[in-house]
Design a protein that fits this description.
The protein has 230 residues and is an alpha/beta fold. 37% of the residues lie in helices and 19% in strands. Strands 1-2-3-4-5-6 form a 6-stranded parallel beta sheet. Helix 4 (95-102) links the parallel strand 3 and strand 4. The protein is globular, with a radius of gyration of 18 Å.
Length: 230
């Protein structure tokens, strides 16, 4: 399944910096993650602003956690009337269900569902993530799971990827960047960890190739760029 909308321009739309998670490796300061959500314009004005350019856009909606934005599904529905979107989300908010019902999957090039292992475990949020990811998958959205790999989670990575595979979801490792517990990443991974990660990238790449024929899923991000960094 490919997008029905051709686009000429791309935009990274940082809808907000606010997030309900506090991942230790996040590159946003905690005070930014906890700030009050600011509404700069209503949904019609955002949509009209892109429309006035006279060109079709691919709008990468990210944050923070964009699903926290007031009437998030309505905004996405408005934008996708004439444009494409993609979405980065931790799938933790109930607005994901409304999004799945109101937005045409053919107008969404991909959904990057970020699974943060430690935060999910501390909030007992694994079941909710699977439920929301399953709804999006069953509605026809092109979805993959990204896993930020910490030194604490790398030993679990194989089991986690197999767990998602059993749910008909493809998980792709993602390397940490920046300082974490006194080390700078991705150079901070040990030789053993890099070898393990290389194998997991190969598994994810194979799963993608088996799931999607050539041209059926062609996101504008390189899902396996991090493999080259190893």
């Amino acid at each position: 399944m490919t997008s029905e909308v051709a686009y000429e321009l791309e935009a990274d739309f940082y809808l907000l910096y606010t997030c309900n998670y506090r991942c230790a490796y996040c590159f946003f300061f905690f005070f930014s993650l906890g700030q009050k959500i600011v509404i700069h314009a209503d949904h019609d004005r955002w949509s009209e602003a892109f429309d006035r350019t006279g060109k079709p856009w691919l709008i990468h909606i990210t944050g923070g956690e964009p699903s926290l934005y007031p009437q998030f599904a309505t905004l996405c529905q408005k934008l996708t009337q004439r444009h494409c979107i993609s979405l980065n989300s931790n799938l933790s908010h109930k607005s994901i269900v409304e999004f799945s019902n109101r937005v045409d999957p053919s107008r969404v090039t991909f959904i990057n569902a970020a699974f943060h292992v430690a935060e999910r475990a501390s909030r007992r949020g694994e079941a909710l993530f699977l439920r929301h990811a399953g709804i999006l998958r069953d509605q026809g959205f092109r979805i993959f799971v990204s896993l930020v790999v910490t030194p604490e989670s790398i030993d679990q990575l194989g089991d986690i990827m197999a767990w998602f595979s059993a749910e008909n979801l493809i998980a792709v490792p993602k390397l940490m960047r920046g300082m974490y517990r006194g080390k700078r990443y991705p150079t901070g991974y040990s030789h053993k960890e890099k070898a393990l990660l290389s194998g997991y990238f190969a598994l994810a790449r194979r799963a993608m190739n088996e799931r999607y024929a050539s041209g059926d899923f062609d996101p504008t991000i390189d899902l396996f760029h991090d493999d080259g960094l190893l």
